[in-house]
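> example.struct
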């Protein structure tokens, strides 16, 4: 399929002459995000081992806690973005996030002291003491501050960096802005990889106290990196959020629900802003059109032509923005269900911890570092696809070709389904090896089975993310109006948050339905007695159903804008 290209003219505008903002502030913003990502992603991979081994928390309950934490971390940036855009501004939101994250990491580090957690004992022995209420309160308080901090920083960091470059549409500004975005995502990816390898290695080989202390130091560096350049930042004032605009449409349509709509031409006037390309609303989801109908110009409009009550009268653009968002929700939901498979990292760490992870006789890969393979696969595939595969195929066919967005999303969901089947097969072999070697009661014993059995899952999962997650972001950006360009990242975060909640529900349901008086649940803390392979087969079946659901949603949606452009 042909891919579009854009051309422009060079317009030179210096970005270093302004007293505020400009290129000189970007390294501080990038350093802030780099250290924050390095600190956070160094903490989370090993938390399931910390909860099960140090706090005696059941594996299913521990996964439930981490699912809720993941959901909160992915949801709070949405709330943070709304507060930053509407009330407090991005600078204050990032600063608040830095302080909250630092406090959360300090509290989590304090849990490594002997008095703050249960006394050591042999796991699964009868004399093990559970954590006290105060000990759990300290742990969960740390988690709450980590989620709040993530909402403050991640909601505004990228947009705050873009603010420093101004709003000019010149080619020079556009190229610098694109370069900033590339550096931002590249640095985040590198930080995630280093966190999952370097910091996790310290936790495994030196201990929890030092391993949780390193993120504290990194978060201090993150905060200092941000605040040291405070006098040089452009600090935009908050304004109305797009969330407010969409809420006004819903409220306005409900308030005006008694207005009767007709398919015939009428004397009703629709409210629109000056210069808007949309003068009348579309016929789809017609109930929402009631929000933009002017009933009485003297009462509904001010002397300067604005709505006297924006919660009763909205513009046609606002109505169409909400309709566009509603239209993409079914496609969004398929990505959310796919993300359920990616959120199984806690159980994967438990599995990998029992397998042979030695690369050499003296070096052993930490169990929690295996998910970093996904990051490597995504990065590698993006480079291969963009720089080698597409140019090579285009050269053979004599024109620029590429997969369209819906094809990429569908391939990603299918690969995610296959990855879960590969994981189920790997776990069945791992469990059989544990029983064969006489370790059904010792889930911490190292088995004579290579952790490379998990490699197909991680590779396929990385490819699934490269196709589906990146494809979805581009799909939202191209399908939604330009005024809602910031919604793409918001929808992705909301999808990950919802996926964590769905994962938590599935784990709880499997545990409750499969556990008996004399029978371990499939998601038991003793993974050698449980049946995680059965649990993964359930996810495989659900993923296959989700793939069929995606095909239906894709067909129902019709051609996207990219396809329409190609068909011209």
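> example.seq
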């Amino acid at each position: 399929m042909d891919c579009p290209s854009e051309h422009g003219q060079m317009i030179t505008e210096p970005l270093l002459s302004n007293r505020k903002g400009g290129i000189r502030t970007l390294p501080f913003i990038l350093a802030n995000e780099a250290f924050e990502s390095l600190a956070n992603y160094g903490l989370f991979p090993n938390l399931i081992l910390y909860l099960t081994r140090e706090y005696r928390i059941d594996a299913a309950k521990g996964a439930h806690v981490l699912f809720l934490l993941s959901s909160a971390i992915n949801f709070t940036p949405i709330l943070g973005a709304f507060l930053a855009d509407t009330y407090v501004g991005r600078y204050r939101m990032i600063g608040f996030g830095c302080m909250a994250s630092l406090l959360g990491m300090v509290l989590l580090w304090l849990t490594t002291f002997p008095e703050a957690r249960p006394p050591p004992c042999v796991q699964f022995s009868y004399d093990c003491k559970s954590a006290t209420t105060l000990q759990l309160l300290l742990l969960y308080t740390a988690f709450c501050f980590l989620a709040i901090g993530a909402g403050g920083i991640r909601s505004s960091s990228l947009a705050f960096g873009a603010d420093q470059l101004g709003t000019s549409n010149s080619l020079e500004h556009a190229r610098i802005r694109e370069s900033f975005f590339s550096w931002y995502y590249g640095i985040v990816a590198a930080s995630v990889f280093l966190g999952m390898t370097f910091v996790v290695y310290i936790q495994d080989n030196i201990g929890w106290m030092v391993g949780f202390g390193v993120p504290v130091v990194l978060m201090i560096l993150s905060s200092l990196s941000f605040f040291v350049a405070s006098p040089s930042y452009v600090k935009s004032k908050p304004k109305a959020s797009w969330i407010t605009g969409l809420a006004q449409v819903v409220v306005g349509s409900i308030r005006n629900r008694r207005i009767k709509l007709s398919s015939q031409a009428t004397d009703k006037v629709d409210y629109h802003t000056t210069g808007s390309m949309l003068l009348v609303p579309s016929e789809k989801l017609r109930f929402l059109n009631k929000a933009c109908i002017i009933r009485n110009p003297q009462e509904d409009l001010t002397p300067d032509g604005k709505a006297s009550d924006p919660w009763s009268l909205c513009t046609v653009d606002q109505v169409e923005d909400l309709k566009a968002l509603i239209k993409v929700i079914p496609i969004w939901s398929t990505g959310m269900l796919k993300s359920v498979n990616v959120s199984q990292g806690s159980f994967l760490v438990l599995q990998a911890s029992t397998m042979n992870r030695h690369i050499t006789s003296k070096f052993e890969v930490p169990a929690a570092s295996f998910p970093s393979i996904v990051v490597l696969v995504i990065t590698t595939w993006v480079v291969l696809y963009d720089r080698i595969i597409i140019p090579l195929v285009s050269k053979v066919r004599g024109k620029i070709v590429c997969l369209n967005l819906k094809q990429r999303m569908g391939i990603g969901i299918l690969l995610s389904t296959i990855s879960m089947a590969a994981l189920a097969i790997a776990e069945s072999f791992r469990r059989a090896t544990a029983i064969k070697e006489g370790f059904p009661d010792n889930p911490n014993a190292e088995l004579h089975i290579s952790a490379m059995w998990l490699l197909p899952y991680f590779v396929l999962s990385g490819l699934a993310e490269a196709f589906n997650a990146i494809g979805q972001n581009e799909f939202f950006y191209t399908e939604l109006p330009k005024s809602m360009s910031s919604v793409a990242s918001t929808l992705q975060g909301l999808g990950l948050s919802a996926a964590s909640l769905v994962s938590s529900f599935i784990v709880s349901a499997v545990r409750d339905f499969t556990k008996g008086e004399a029978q371990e649940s499939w998601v038991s803390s003793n993974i050698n007695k449980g049946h995680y392979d059965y649990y993964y087969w359930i996810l495989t079946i659900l993923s296959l159903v989700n793939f069929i659901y995606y095909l239906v949603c894709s067909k129902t949606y019709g051609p996207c804008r990219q396809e329409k452009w190609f068909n011209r």
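> remarks
The two ends are 12 Å apart (CA to CA).
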